Amino acid sequence: MARQDGTAQELTDQLTVDQLAARAGVTVRTIRFYSTRGLLPPPTIGPRRVGRYGPEHLSRLALIEELQNQGMTLAAIERYLQRLPDDISAHDLAIHRAVVASWMPDTVDETTREQLERRVGRRLTDDDLERLEAMSVLGRTDDPDVFRVDPALVQLGVRLLDVPISQEAILAAREVMLDHARAAARELSRLFKQEVWEPYREREPDGERRERMKALSAHMQPMVVQALVTAFQRSMKEELREVFPGETAPRPGPAG
């Protein structure tokens, strides 16, 4: 049974099924199919019995796409989603997607300006495109209306367009995060080599070692990413408490 209207939902569930399909880059038929399989929660029913969809639907579709890219079957995706809490937020779904995407090699999509605008659900000015290019979200091609887009960054980049801070501050923050991420990756790789790989290599025959280590790495990487995300969130809360003593920490907004 579809959910009924609610004040909070009226503020967030604004997409028709056609708009949701355009934002997610899938067909309406795909959305209907996912809904019948229970992969998507039912929409809110609005005026004239029109179904309305919100950020959690968009985030769930993005997660399903990442799981498919990982090579999971539809049945496996169903089992994965069934293990998630019923009330999981769009923000937490985005974290799951980030963890899954960390397993995948870097990918770049080519898209037209019109397709990109449909995907993000808004018109993009020339200035917007320049800012997205500066953040490495997109790159230019020989065709001025065709761009190379990083699908893992596009929604985040578009949300940053509305953040009331300068482009220089955004780029500086990006460099800080990249520097610390590289440092963490180097240290974790060093620990993995010293504590896991070297002892393992001494015990296992060469013929078996490679496949075993591949399997071990595949299981460890998402756990490490989830641990880093959790540690970062907790650290940010602590820092915000120190910067704004006595204030309630801001809650994360909906993720696309």
Write out the strand line-up for the largest beta sheet, numbering strands in chain order.
Answer: 3-5-4
Give the helices and strands as they follow along the chain: HHHEEHHHEHHEEHHH
Task: Estimate percent helicity.
Answer: 55-70%
Structural class: mainly alpha
Distance between the termini: 25 Å
Q: What is the subunit organization of this protein?
A: single chain
Low-confidence parts lasting 5 or more residues at pLDDT below 50?
A: 1-11, 252-256
What is Rg? 21 Å
- List how many beta strands DSSP finds: 5
Main attributes?
256 residues, mainly alpha, three-stranded antiparallel β-sheet, two-stranded antiparallel sheet, globular, disordered N terminus, disordered C terminus
Task: Describe this structure as you would to a colleague.
The protein has about 260 residues and is mainly α. It is built from eleven helices and five strands; from the N terminus they run αααββαααβααββααα. It has helices spanning about 5-10, 15-25, 30-35, 55-70, 75-80, 90-100, 115-120, 125-135, 155-160, 165-205, 205-245; strands at about 45, 50, 110, 140, 145-150. It is globular. About 20% of the residues are buried. The model is unreliable at about 1-10 and about 250-255 (pLDDT under 50).
